Automatic annotation (TrEMBL):
Name of the molecule in the record: Histone-arginine methyltransferase METTL23
Source species: Chloropsis hardwickii
Record has Methyltransferase as a keyword: yes
Pfam families: Methyltransf_16
Chain segments annotated as coiled-coil in the UniProt record: none
GO MF entry, a single one: protein-arginine omega-N asymmetric methyltransferase activity
Superkingdom assignment: Eukaryota
Catalytic activity field: L-arginyl-[protein] + 2 S-adenosyl-L-methionine = N(omega),N(omega)-dimethyl-L-arginyl-[protein] + 2 S-adenosyl-L-homocysteine + 2 H(+)
Heme keyword on record: no
Gene encoding the protein: Mettl23
Length: 198
C-alpha cells in the first residue's frame, strides 16, 4: 500500500477508537479535540457528532488525505470542522498556532516504526502546550518487536493501557461493523509524565 493511500480507508483501529468515544460521549460536549493522521476521520467525526469542538489533521504532504477529511465532514453534515495539514515531527505555523486542546486522537498512527518518534515528538509538543490534555490512541499489533516504550521515556510521556472490554470493544463486530474482526487491537492513553516533586 502506498503511503498516500493509508488515509483513504477506515481501518479496524478507527472503529475501536470510535467505540471508545461513543462510550464516553457524555463527556465530549465542549471538549477541544484534535485528530492526527485523520484520513477518513471516523473517530473525529464521531467526536464532533457527540458535541466536541473538533479539528481534523493529516500530513500537509498528503492532499488526498486532507481531502478525505473534508469529504467525511461534508458527508456527515459537519462543514464547520476545520481540516489542517500537520506533518508529524515538523514544527509548522499551523502547529504553533493551534488553539488549546483537551484530547488528541490517533487511530493506527503507530503503523510504520520509522514514524514513531516523529509522532511522539508532535504529541510531546502538543502536551507541553496543553499539560492536562491526553492522547487517546488505538493501534493494531503487527509485530512483537515494535515498541514505543523507550520513546515514551525519552519524551517524558507515560501511557495507560485501556482494556477493550472496559468499553465493549472486545468483539469481532462493533456498531454493525465487522472491521475489528480477529485483529489484535490495543488502546492506550498517553499523557505527560509528572516530574519528581510535582
Amino acid at each position: 500500500v502506498l503511503d498516500s493511500q493509508y488515509g483513504m480507508y477506515v481501518w479496524p483501529c478507527a472503529v475501536v477508537l470510535a467505540q471508545y468515544l461513543w462510550a464516553h460521549r457524555r463527556s465530549l460536549p465542549g471538549q477541544r479535540v484534535l485528530e492526527i493522521g485523520a484520513g477518513v476521520s471516523l473517530p473525529g467525526v464521531v467526536a464532533a457528532r457527540c458535541g466536541a469542538q473538533v479539528i481534523l489533521s493529516d500530513s500537509e504532504e498528503l492532499p488526498q488525505c486532507l481531502q478525505s477529511c473534508r469529504s467525511s465532514c461534508l458527508m456527515n453534515r459537519l462543514p464547520h470542522v476545520p481540516v489542517l495539514g500537520l506533518t508529524w515531527g515538523r514544527v509548522s505555523p499551523e502547529l504553533l498556532s493551534l488553539a488549546p486542546i483537551d484530547i488528541i486522537l490517533g487511530s493506527d498512527v503507530f503503523f510504520d516504526p520509522k514514524d514513531f518518534e516523529d509522532i511522539l515528538t508532535t504529541i510531546y509538543f502538543l502536551l507541553e502546550k496543553n499539560p492536562h490534555a491526553q492522547f487517546w490512541t488505538t493501534y493494531q499489533v503487527r509485530s512483537a518487536d515494535w515498541s514505543i516504550e523507550a520513546l515514551l521515556y525519552k519524551w517524558n510521556l507515560k501511557s495507560i493501557h485501556v482494556p477493550l472490554h472496559s468499553f465493549g470493544a472486545d468483539k469481532e463486530h462493533l456498531a454493525s461493523s465487522s472491521m475489528p474482526g480477529r485483529h489484535t487491537i490495543e488502546m492506550m492513553i498517553i499523557s505527560l509524565a509528572q516530574s519528581e516533586g510535582t
